Amino acid sequence: MTAVKFCGLRRREDIEYVNLTRPDYVGFILSDGFKRSVTAEEFSVLQKGLDKNIKKVGVFVNERPSKVIELAKRLDVIQLHGDEDFSTVLYYSEKTECEIWKAVRAKNPEDIEHYRWGHIDKLLIDSFSENGVGGTGVRINTDVVTSAEITKPFFIAGGITAENVAEIIKKTKPFGVDISSGTETDGFKDLNKMKQIMQILKEENLR
Question: Which of 48, 46, 19, 49 is CA-nearest to residue 30?
């Protein structure tokens, strides 16, 4: 079964939508300065309404450790989406009970193969874009993924939509898919798109 993560939740409606569609994971952008960012206070309110069977992923970009450690108390996963090094991964692994995921903006197979560090539980292989560190809608280069020697369970992200999700999964065989812009219309989460993605995965026997 392919795991599903819907990322970039920021409204009460988004929580309602994921409770209906039941992905395995949901992501909250907990670093400032991004279009889907939520404050610690907003996250605290939103997560209370989330179905307890859906795991909470906090997405951080070069964040100060004290903030990550505090928010980790209400998270299942810490996703590091910046330039964090091995010592940062080790620190969070030792100081929290969370899984640690490291995002890779992959231009080539070597970018992915670099992250064979211990204490990384999963990789999140994202498309490379000059315009941002995630949620850009730029489609992942699946050839880069299939050419890499990947030693850890991994998620695929980058331009995944209902139209291509099955194709991307079949080609790359990931642990899971991480979808953000592909669940949105005019910049906001769209319940119908979420339902469509989940239905396609069921029809294709991918869930």
Answer: 46
Are residues 18 and 9 in contact, defined by beta-carbon separation less than 8 angstroms? yes
Per-residue confidence (pLDDT) for residue 137, from 0 to 100: 63
pTM of this prediction exceeds 0.85 = yes
104-138 tens-digit pLDDT: 988 999 999 999 898 999 999 998 665 555 445 67
Determine the Cα–Cα distance for residues 96 and 23; give it in Å rounded to an integer: 24
8/14 Cα distance (integer angstroms) = 9
Q: What are the C-alpha distances in Å from 81 to residues 1, 61, 130?
A: 25, 5, 14
Numbers of helices and strands, H then E, in the chain:
8, 10
- In a 3-state reduction of DSSP, which class is residue 47? helix
Token code pair at residue 44: 């605290």
